[in-house]
Amino acid sequence: MRIDIVTIFPTFFDVLDISLLGKARTNGLIELGVHDLRDYTHDRHRTVDDTPYGGGAGMVMKPEPWGEVLDTLLDSGSADRAEGSDPLVIFPSPAGEVFTQAMARSLADEEQLVFGCGRYEGIDQRVFDHVATRARVKLVSMGDYVLNGGEVAVMAMIEAIGRLVPGVVGNPASLVEESHENGLLEYPSYTKPAEWRGLEVPPILLSGNHGAIAKWRHEQQVERTRRVRPDLLADDGAVPL
Questions:
Q1: Sign of CA pseudo-dihedral 215, 220, 226, 232
Q2: Which of 131-140, 186-195, 227-236 has the lowest average pLDDT?
Q3: What tens digit of pLDDT does each residue of 9-67 get?
Q4: 88 and 114 in contact (C-beta within 8 Å)?
Q5: DSSP letters along the chain, please?
Q6: Exposed/middle/buried for 102, CB within 10 Å: 0-12, 13-18, 19+?
Q7: Which residues are paired to 92 by β-bridges?
């Protein structure tokens, strides 16, 4: 998978050199490019924003530098792409579709993802409209709240997507039993010692009865989901299979 990030804070993504994603890059499973939007400006102040038409507080990111950097990224490697495999350009936005585990799984199958990190009051709408004539565009929200910029949201999406790329996580089975994979929250986990500060591991987990353990874990998933995230269940309270 190829991932490109456009941002005015490129060093923000240095953390992607560590942990599993860092190893995935070293092993060639994920190719990452971080691009400074200011490198595509042409004034001595490297200006990327201006006042909004129609008035209002804050500043809006100018279309010119975005157009240049995205032209470069969309043109590069275009001859090598399979037909119908245009890059997907993702912009974090509180006005976008909510990011979910299901979306992360879908995005993990993409050949190339381009992330655009907005700042200030957002990016000129014409950037989205123009890019949509050349590639697929998706606006994605991390939830019902607003961040100062798109970098944190992009980092979260790359972490969620990257770990689903085949080979990134050493034991693929560990991905199956996580929260949201089956529509439920994950069951509680325990390790040694069996007793810690007066708190004991549930006896069923020490029984060696794998069928009973699986049943207990599913019950814990259902109970936790009903208590913490009832919105994940059907309107009638039915549990996903």
A1: negative
A2: 227-236
A3: 999 999 999 889 999 999 999 999 999 999 999 999 999 999 999 999 899 999 999 99
A4: yes
A5: -EEEEEES-GGGGGGGGSHHHHHHHHTTS-EEEEEEGGGG--STT---EEPPTT--SS-EE-HHHHHHHHHHHHHTTGGGSPTT-PPEEEEEEEEEEEP-HHHHHHHTT-SEEEEE--BTT-B-HHHHHHHTTTSEEEEEESSSS--SBSHHHHHHHHHHHHTTSTTSSS-GGGGTTSTTSSSSPPPP---S-SEETTEE--GGGGS--HHHHHHHHHHHHHHHHHHH-GGGS-TT-PPP-
A6: exposed
A7: 140
Q: In what order do the strands lie in the sheet with 31-36?
A: 31-36, 2-7, 112-116, 88-98, 136-141
Distance separating alpha carbons of residues 214 and 204, to the nearest angstrom: 10
CA proximity to 70, closest of 106, 113, 12 = 113
Q: Could you tell me the CA-to-CA distances from 130 to 70, 89, 106, 115, 127 in Å, in that order?
A: 10, 12, 24, 16, 5
Q: What Cα–Cα distance (Å) separates residue 29 from each residue in 78, 79, 115, 147, 231?
A: 20, 21, 18, 30, 35
C-alpha to C-alpha distance for 5 and 21, rounded to whole angstroms: 15
Q: Looking at the DSSP assignment, which residues form a beta bridge with residue 33?
A: 4
Assess whether pLDDT exceeds 80 at residue 68.
yes
Q: What end-to-end distance do the CA atoms of the chain give, in Å?
A: 31
Q: What is the C-alpha R_g of the chain? A: 22
